[in-house]
Sequence to fold (108 residues):
Amino acid sequence: MTVQTLAGLEGVRALTCPEPEREIRGVYIGDLLSWVMGRAEADNVWITIMTNINIVAVASLADTSCILLAEGVTPEQSVLDTAEAKGVNILQSAKPIYETAMQLREFV
Fold:
């Protein structure tokens, strides 16, 4: 599955998508940034509700395919601008974290 395919799922939308063809090979869920840095794997979708600027750095360091913001949370425009400039895909889902993860189970 690619980030672009994920962005096309029901209830998911791209907020930034500079690398739409990036492959997804797993899912990681977490909000403690230091924990995510040490445990998320390259090409994972990272599901979180965190929206501060540090998510862009963590996604970049962990080499995740994208950040998927659950619960309908929306980052500030400056976070989106930084993500776009750094090549970090950010998607959004209005669904709760559990439902968001369950939606991905048949694709990843």
User: Anything to note?
Assistant: DSSP finds five helices and five strands in the chain. The chain has one domain: 3-104. Residues 37 and 61 are 7 Å apart (CA to CA). The first helix runs from residue 3 to 7.
